[in-house]
UniProtKB/TrEMBL annotation:
The keyword Plastid does not apply. CDD domains: HTH_ARSR (cd00090). Residues 207-299 form the HTH arsR-type domain. SUPFAM superfamilies: Winged helix' DNA-binding domain (SSF46785). Signal peptide: none annotated. PANTHER family: ARSENICAL RESISTANCE OPERON REPRESSOR ARSR-RELATED, HTH-TYPE TRANSCRIPTIONAL REPRESSOR CZRA. This is ArsR family transcriptional regulator. It comes from Paenibacillus chitinolyticus.
Length: 299
């Protein structure tokens, strides 16, 4: 395992992330934005626009747009990015995206021009009505500078990932570059996309500074016997989701809920390997929890 850390900040990533979150909202109760954010979006948007969003089934093209961010000559704003995407023909889009598409039979390939027109129109409205009014972009830029500083100090790449992503180990042998991209809307969790020999990780910016919220999230996670059982299991060795389900029993949905709660509290880390995805107890957990509690009590 040998990879380099790079920063790859662009406002486009946050716009795509928030757009996809509105559609893929099943885990929103675990996120800081919470269900109230959905209502905020509904209040901002025209009903006809929301109807178009609700009618969408396949979001593959939006997922693939993240590939184009690195290829865009000017991704400094969502507006310039969308202008550039609109200049690409269906053939050019295919050439740029085909090697990143796992399923060559996906119907998106048959309608790339139509998909481009549909989603650039929808994303332009999303940018105008929501992202242009959102005030958190400067904080994300600061997050990029923090990663760059950590790289300059000579820290090990895997330790930088663990610190900023708040619980992740990248052990995929094909990966040569890890792009760390600060994100807001998916906090306190991270999300990632493996792109050949590169992985884009949208990590939760600035969430582990101790405050009442982070301490209460940890307290909630530790208040359940099943979750404590999972932590005890992971303290011995890392386990896959299947392993954990077999060991502690219960429905998969319940185990998923427990793991999401533990991840939300920053108590477990995700290990990406060629074999499988594993979960493990985060290193230095007891010490970090004590420091957070002490900081809040003495604050």
């Amino acid at each position: 395992m040998a990879y380099q850390i790079e920063t790859a900040f662009s406002p486009v990533h946050e716009c795509l992330l928030s757009f996809l979150l509105y559609k893929r909202r099943q885990n929103i109760k675990y996120l800081y934005v919470g269900p109230s954010w959905l209502q905020q979006i509904r209040d901002m948007m025209e009903p006809a626009y929301l109807d178009k969003l609700d009618a969408l089934d396949d979001l593959t093209f939006v997922d693939l747009l993240s590939v184009l961010v690195d290829q865009c000559p000017d991704a400094a704003s969502m507006e310039t990015f969308l202008e550039w995407v609109n200049t690409l023909s269906a053939g050019e889009l295919y050439e740029r995206l085909a090697s990143y598409m796992a399923d060559g039979k996906n119907p998106v390939w048959l309608h790339l021009g139509e998909q481009r027109d549909l989603f650039t129109e929808l994303l332009a409205v999303w940018q105008e009505k929501y992202m242009a009014r959102w005030t958190g972009m400067d904080a994300l830029r600061e997050g990029t500078r923090e990663v760059e500083e950590a790289v300059r100090t000579g820290k090990k790449a895997e330790d930088i990932v663990e610190t900023f992503v708040t619980g992740m180990r990248v052990e995929l042998t094909a990966i040569r570059k890890v792009h760390l991209i600060p994100a807001y809307h998916f906090r306190p969790l991270h999300t990632f996309a493996v792109l050949k020999d590169k992985i884009n990780i949208l990590y939760p910016h600035n969430i582990e500074k101790p405050d009442i919220f982070t301490v209460s999230a940890a307290a909630k996670a530790l208040s359940d016997e099943k979750r404590l059982e999972i932590l005890k299991l992971l303290s011995v060795e890392r386990r896959s989701f299947t392993d954990i389900t077999k060991e502690i029993g219960g429905a998969k949905g319940n185990v998923h809920h427990h793991l999401m709660t533990l991840r939300m509290a920053g108590l477990v880390s995700v290990h990406l390997t060629d074999e499988a995805t594993f979960l493990a107890l985060r290193p230095g957990l007891s010490e970090r929890l004590k420091q957070q509690v002490d900081h809040v009590l003495k604050g």
